Amino acid sequence: MDTKSDFINRVVQEANRIEEDCAYNSTGHFIAAKRWKITDYLLNCPAALLTGLAAFFAFTDTTILIFNSKTIAGILTVIATLLNIAIILLNAGQKSSN
To answer: pTM (2 decimals)?
Structure first.
């Protein structure tokens, strides 16, 4: 009779340990997802803003300092492209949702 109750006690203890481990793991995943979501916003917002500015400068004819609007549009496009490459490679939006 003791072995049966000992077995049940050990199973209950192991179940409690697994439950506690799952609680810690879920908290860690939640924090990691929050970090990836912030990274996603930090990359996507500037990329969208730079793309809009590049489009604006591509269709205007102005000069800022020593650069004409086409040069500014080209520089902004290159920077926005590099940000988009980082967004694609990091895949932060997908990592935050999983």
So the answer is: 0.63
Residue 34's domain spans which residues?
A: 2-97
Is the four-CA dihedral 98, 89, 72, 51 of positive or negative sign?
negative
**CA dist., res. 56 & res. 48, Å (int):** 12
Phi, psi of 67 (to 5 degrees): -105, 135
Give me the number of domains the chain comprises.
1
Cα dihedral 89, 92, 97, 98 sign: positive
Tell me the pairing of strands 67-68 and 63-64.
Answer: antiparallel
Q: What is the pLDDT of residue 33?
A: 81
